[in-house]
């Protein structure tokens, strides 16, 4: 047996173990993951070898191997990585955004439709693209949101940190390719227009990816300064991207935007304290604050709210409110047509803090959220404020 044949044989035996939990439906339905697998296998050859998945007589994987003389170690390793990824995906179904992060789409009209639909259908604490956004910027908002949502899902919705890092690395390569003039997927086909139109630098996008990569490696923070450092990449870039859409590139506005975006991120953290530890094994509450108020990880995991936890969360909510207050100075410095939408984001975050206070800082037994009526009320208030600004005259 040649060295290449022996390698392939050993690789197939290893692949059998990797694919033990692969659902038969993933093969029969010819899903995107399987098409990618078969495409890569096709590079090896065109004859077929079938082997069964142990414990799954109803499923099988086909491996092309006739052109054995041309087989390279990299090709086999690529096959095995795809099998491993498919196994993980079959047991941890990911949202559609993960599929579309890699599915080819170069038609600009279809790409725009995809990002528009994603921005209007996905749940958030508050509407991402409302009628308060100037019409000329709505598609750009959708395109940027699609990037942020997709990168976030690649980090949080895959269910396997190592696989998430591989996906995010691929997404980073797509970002760099986009700036080099090459786009292959819906997100970047649509986003490339926005980048060119508004001359947006690549750093905010790369910073966001960096934050989601950090989530795969870091799940505890010792100090508030460490949490704030994370926010400089997980939240602040979003505000800066919005400022670029509005034509603002100065440091003063960016610094004020950072205050609001960090506050929004912190409000989300304090809203999801228990969900983060149960679903993602993450604690964003600084360890030094937890120690100060005599709260430990086990208490959070068990959902036991007492006076110590309430004091801790009040302390963090108050710090978050201070950032919202400081960020409010941005509003008079931006165009009145965009001011209402920005104020709406801030109002939504502060409404979450109000809901936390209303629950007496107990976010362990019940996750605070905004009701539909509350969202409508905030929207109406923002619209009225925007109308008054137009009548009174505002920043241009």
Report a brief summary of the structure:
With 396 residues, this protein is mainly alpha-helical. It contains 19 helices and two strands. Helices cover 67% and strands 4% of the residues.
Would you kindly provide a written description of the structure presented here, covering whatever features stand out?
The structure is a single chain. By secondary structure, this protein is mainly alpha-helical. The chain folds into three domains: 3-91, no CATH class; 108-117 and 130-213, no CATH class; 218-396, Farnesyl Diphosphate Synthase (Orthogonal Bundle). It has helices at 3-18, 24-28, 32-42, 73-91, 96-100, 108-121, 138-156, 161-179, 186-198, 203-217, 224-234, 236-246, 251-271, 273-280, 287-292, 297-302, 307-327, 336-358, 372-392; strands at 48-53, 56-64. Strands 1-2 form a two-stranded antiparallel sheet. A hairpin with a 2-residue loop joins strand 1 and strand 2. The longest helix is centred in the last third of the chain and has 23 residues, at 336-358. It starts with a helix and ends with a helix. The model is unreliable at 1-74 and 382-396 (pLDDT under 50).
């Amino acid at each position: 047996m040649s060295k290449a044949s022996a390698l392939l044989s050993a690789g197939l035996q290893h692949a059998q173990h990797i694919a033990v939990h692969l659902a038969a439906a993933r093969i029969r339905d010819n899903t995107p993951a399987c098409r990618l697998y078969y495409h890569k296998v096709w590079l090896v050859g065109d004859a077929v070898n079938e082997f069964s998945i142990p414990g799954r007589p109803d499923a099988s994987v086909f491996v092309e191997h006739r052109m054995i003389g041309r087989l390279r170690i990299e090709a086999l390793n690529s096959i095995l990585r795809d099998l491993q990824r498919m196994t993980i995906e079959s047991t941890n179904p990911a949202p559609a955004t993960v599929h579309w992060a890699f599915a080819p789409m170069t038609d600009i009209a279809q790409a725009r439709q995809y990002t528009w639909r994603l921005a209007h259908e996905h749940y958030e604490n508050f509407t991402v693209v409302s009628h308060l956004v100037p019409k000329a910027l709505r598609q750009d908002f959708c395109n940027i949101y699609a990037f942020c949502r997709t990168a976030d899902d690649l980090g949080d919705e895959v269910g396997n940190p190592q696989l998430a890092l591989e996906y995010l690395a691929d997404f980073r390569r797509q970002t760099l390719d986009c700036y080099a003039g090459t786009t292959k997927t819906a997100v970047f086909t649509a986003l490339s227009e926005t980048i060119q139109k508004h001359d947006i630098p690549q750093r905010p996008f790369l910073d966001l990816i960096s934050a989601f990569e950090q989530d795969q490696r870091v799940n505890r923070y010792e100090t508030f300064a460490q949490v704030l450092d994370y926010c400089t990449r997980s939240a602040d870039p979003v505000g800066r991207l919005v400022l670029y859409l509005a034509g603002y590139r100065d440091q003063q506005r960016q610094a004020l935007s950072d205050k609001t975006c960090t506050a929004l991120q912190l409000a989300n953290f304090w809203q999801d304290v228990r969900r983060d530890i149960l679903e993602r094994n993450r604690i964003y509450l600084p360890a030094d604050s937890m120690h100060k108020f005599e709260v430990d990880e086990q208490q959070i995991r068990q959902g036991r709210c007492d006076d110590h936890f309430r004091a801790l969360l009040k302390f963090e909510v108050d710090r978050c409110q201070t950032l919202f207050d400081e960020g409010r100075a941005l509003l008079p410095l931006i165009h009145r047509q965009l001011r209402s939408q920005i104020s709406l984001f801030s109002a939504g975050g502060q409404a979450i803090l109000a809901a936390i206070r209303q629950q007496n800082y107990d976010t362990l037994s019940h996750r605070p959220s905004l009701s539909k009526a509350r969202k409508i009320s905030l929207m109406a208030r923002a619209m009225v404020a925007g109308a008054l600004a137009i009548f009174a005259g505002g920043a241009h």
